[in-house]
Protein 1
Amino acid sequence: MYLNYFGLHTEPFSIAPDPQFLYLSERHQEALAHLSYGLQGSGGFILLTGEVGTGKTTVSRALLEQLPEHTQTAFILNPMLNSIELLATLCDEFGIDYEAQGATAKQLTDKLSQFLLAAHAQNRQCVVLIDEAQHLQPQVLEQLRLLTNLETNQHKLLRVILIGQPELQDLLRRRELRQLAQRITARYHLLPLQFADSERYINYRLQVAGAQRGLFDASAIKKVHQASEGIPRRLNLLCDRALLAAYNDQQPVVGAKHIKIAVQELDGGVGTATTMPQSPRGLTNFLNRGLSLIVVAAIVASIVAVGSWWWLQPNSAVSTPATTQIEAPKPAAVEALAHAWQLPKPPINTDFCRWIESFELMCIAGSARYDQIVKTNLPHLLVLADSSYQFVGSSNQQPADNWTGDFVLVVAQPPGYTATEAEVEGSVYQQWLAQQLKQQSLQASEPLAQQLQRLQVAKGLSVTSKLDALTLAWLISQSELGGPKLSATAATTEVH
């Protein structure tokens, strides 16, 4: 109804996955980078999760478009299958002939194995993409794992991309699926769009649809981002309704009042967008989960996770005092850190650093001089002399440069950053690390210690010649993984 009125030749906010409207936000690009690294690695499984409507299908389509021409892809869009049905569907997708009547799991597996070996001999890569994978039965996932056992000395003959809602992560934590979970070489949890991306998303789709001018004023864009919580599918629905409301009102642009009308229509008259429950939340047992060490090696350096914090080994240049000397941060400081990453409020009685792993983030903690901490340009927590905790999210709310003490940083997990995969020579994580050092104009022919020393001297980091916490955090902050930056406005929370 409103196309001619606004000078559009097609609907700009249809929820159909039209390739011409493909828009990769910063977070979609991060997800794509993680998955691309995973396909280059040695493992068999790649995991992409996200809430409904965050753009998982968009990322998967972009990933498939980047695959080499010699790649054969099997799509499973209906995961409500048993093991036999899964094997038969894979045969159908790959064009493998088999006896449909009475085919056994062994017969179908043998057919697939022969096909995969023949494809490898012809230098063809085989990829299976499963959407809505949270609905897969555990025995079906185990059947997939068995299929990925077929491999050469260097490569898996079958790669599996699992796409699903956050429940998929819970499914993969089940004990009977621990072998499969260990084979996931890349994983990414897709978060909603940030405000700047929502604005670009809206204007991009309008431009593709033929708009010659902006059709949403600044107040409308701000309100629709808040109402949609940055979820692309909900953005589409709200923007479509808002355009119709502006048309009915005979207004040349969409204003905040039209977004309010759209929200009321979409939510059945409630008038507000669906939000996270606002029950009291906090962090009461941040450090009392016990000490469990997970060693993650990067050639000559190790970063160790102790309890819910990620500490460095004692011989590292960045160390921390004993855990008994550090009181657990109070909710306000931790919630401010979570908010800086646009995360929901941390749940009560939940290990914060374990909780953020589901968002592909991790904690790095240590002790350092403040002028070195701010080199990462990331929001952080400081442990003050009186045992209070200060959240610092602004560049103009910092202590003196000569301040030295304990800190906590949240950073994005690098691709393949797991206790097992990171130790494997040529792993996805080590490839990522080598690429980051190369981008800093360091010579790969030099020993790693020398490369790190040059980097630390050049960037004003503590010179340890090792991949300590701050060096890793700095590399992550400079990479495509990025993260929120310290703002120029006051953003400090202090809790005693």
Note: The longest helix spans residues 105-121.
Protein 2
Amino acid sequence: MKKLFWKDPYLTQCIATVTRIEGNHITLDKTILFAFSGGQASDSGTIHGYPVAAAKKIGREIVYEIDAAHDLQVGQQVKVVIDWEKRYKIMKLHFAAEIVLELMVQNFNNPPKIGANITAEKARIDFQWNGNISEVLPMLQKRIEEMIESNAPILSEFSDEEQEIRYWKIDGFGKVPCGGTHIKNTGEIGSVLLKRGKRLGANKERIEIYLC
């Protein structure tokens, strides 16, 4: 399966061929519909007009769940369309979270990340952290605003294409393994707001990120 969302995450539609059908679960020879991975939510969209109810990554394949009453057949060409508004919000929030995480790594001795989730509404990162993480939010807010203002180019590439291992890189800032969908430059993020999330227990803190 060719994952076109890596080659061009700005594609909003493509023509693909159905390669397997098991009831209402199908696979394609190529796709622009990202499936939940690394905390990044799945895309929403349609395949041949059928809404995609779920997307699941199995090995290097992505299996899509559609309407059980579909009439698709193996070998059929279908039009795949994503919900671009949702995708773009996720891309911006995802990279805002990547910047926050890298700032935490660089400035606070790499505190263990214990969870992450990125949707179209907000992003969150959970850390093992001794104390109230709101104390460092002003610094993080200032630094991410500087990164956004710099409009720095973001390189997204394979470190191992056969194993589908990818990374993002900003010159002078960082190089981080990540298989998500990325914007082209930091300026696309726009304005963000960082907040302390709900308490998770002893020595566990959450940072939430919102688009303004």
Note: Residues 2-82 form a domain with the Elongation Factor Tu (Ef-tu); domain 3 fold (CATH 2.40.30.130).
Protein 3
Amino acid sequence: MNLKNELQSIHNKLDTAKRKLDAAHERGDTVMINQFNTTITALTKKLKSVKAQQTKKLSQQGGDVKSLPFSRVLTKTEQADMGKLKKSVKGLVVVHPMTALGREMGIKEVTGFAPKEF
């Protein structure tokens, strides 16, 4: 399972456990309250672990992209015909500032990274 799906799954399980915990509090069922508290702490720990993995993966990917020898901001016409640009430049990686990778790298405009000048 990829990290994004695993993260969503953990969030769903955590939300369900919290709702069941609230219901157990209303009933006054101490056994179930203890069970859901342990479940919530385990899921929270797993959630932090997956988020750390995701951050590490993004950081590594950003480093790989930044290590490419040439980069420049793409013009609006190049952005409009991205397919043609990618066919003409082999190994081109386009990073948008609103993606997770773009936020991790701290770019402000759509930027292309490539092994050779384009």
Note: The mean pLDDT is 93.
Protein 4
Amino acid sequence: MNAPRTVLITGGNRGIGRSIAEEFIAQGHRVAVTVRSGQGPAGALSVVADVTDPASLDKAFAEVEEKLGAVEVLVANAGITRDTLLMRMTDEEFEDVINTNLNGVFRVLRRATKGMIKAKYGRVILIGSVVGLLGSAGQVNYSAAKSALVGMARSITRELGARGITANVVAPGFIDTDMTAALPEAQQDEYKKKIPAGRFAQPEEVAKVVAWLASDEASYISGAVIPVDGGLGMGH
């Protein structure tokens, strides 16, 4: 059993973020989640924050630090989609996704790494996507933001690797969440045909990889992109 750590997960009230929070709680860690509305899972400290608002993040971090201690593991998971074909995509649809999915990660990282540098210990896990490297029609904004996380994790590794801090990207493929469940069945079947595993992942399958990356067993892994996609993005 690894020593209990203070873990902060952005966007931890539903989908993959919620599963990640549940996994860390089950492993005995001190877990906080940022939410814009609603609550994280039982056993988590829920703090209201919006990754596009630096002041709200400062407030959230102050609350987490006061109640659970300095953040040692950061999981940057909060994200939005505004899918549409390039020709129809507005400036706002592009910029909104970049502001949450990329600039938001930068804001959270900047705040979280202060304590990590002081402690000479940290785990940064950015939740990317298979489409960050594979690409996806209708997701120029989303895939651009997700591929940028790779450069971010690798730059953090070069900057902070000597201070006991690792930074990695976990790139999920299609996951069984409310979002995929809402797709028409024919479309779901079409997607499954492209996945060598022949099925969508359970959110817990992503959560377990994230928790492992935060553990002592993964202390020499940094700047990596770990796919959890059933083989969908092989070679990318």
Note: The chain has a mean pLDDT of 96.
